[in-house]
Amino acid sequence: MGLTIKKMIKPGFYLRLPGIIKYRLIRTYHEKLLFKFLSKESIFTSIWRNNYWGDEESLSGPGSTLIQTEELRNKSPVMFKEFEINSVFDAPCGDLNWMQDILENTDVKYIGGDIVSEIVERNKSNFKKENVDFRRFDITSDTFPDVDVWLCRAVLYHLSNADILSALERFVESNIKHILTTNCITDSDHINNDISTGDYRHLNLMLPPFSFPKEVLWEIDDYVYPHPPVKICLWTRKQIENVLPEIRKNI
Question: For labeling, which of 20, 24, 110, 172 is most exposed (least CB within 10 Å)?
Fold first, then answer.
């Protein structure tokens, strides 16, 4: 089924269609077919190639614009200093639309990982700097590098519960000290519905089935209205390790 779907439409086909028709076809094709039948790599490669998010500034989506990330770009160097963070693993890293600003203004060692090979090769070509490296990486199965923090921004709410669990297990197996990740701001009775990887839902990691600790080391608002309110939060690996058995039980 997956191979048949991939042969139906050539990469970039949608980019030749006009405006709203293109956008609606892209969304329908991905949500009704790709997200249900293809591998993670194929799903996110297609999202990238066909600009699934429909954003003019960044193929990584509207959450990666400079306006959307202004607070994060301003506050990250402060956080790095406070928690003695000298190295970052940014995965998935996307197109570095906003991260390049941080890299130009800090000396932090940076490793960017992404499941989409085209993104990795493009970044390698466009961002050549000492202490900056890129690699093809699947956060649900590959071995994490030794760094101070795993930056996992605007990612987990696009993964199925099972894939989130796999990513957290790989993180806990690593030597990384902290995870800095996106958490949706919701009501206390919010339900974290499961999805097919590639899709989206509001994900409050402090609620079941994940129940991350409410004791957050560091957090800032990481959205601009009218986008849904989210914070980016810092936890230790030990905190996640402690809740992992309960997560396994609930998924």
Answer: 20
Distances (CA, A) of 162 to 140, 169, 248, 251: 9, 11, 9, 7
The enclosing domain of 125 has a CATH number of 3.40.50.150
- Tell me the two tokens of residue 154: 């605007």
The span from the CA of 74 to the CA of 61, in Å, is: 20
Full strand arrangement of the beta sheet holding 178-184: 132-136, 109-114, 87-90, 149-152, 178-184, 230-236, 218-221
Per-residue model confidence as pLDDT tens digits over 198-214: 999 999 999 999 999 99
Q: Partners of 88 in the beta sheet?
A: 110, 149
pTM for this prediction: 0.88
Domain count, the chain: 2
Tokens representing residue 71 in the block: 């607070």
Tell me the residue type at 114.
D
Q: Which of residues 10, 44, 59 is at a domain's end?
A: 59
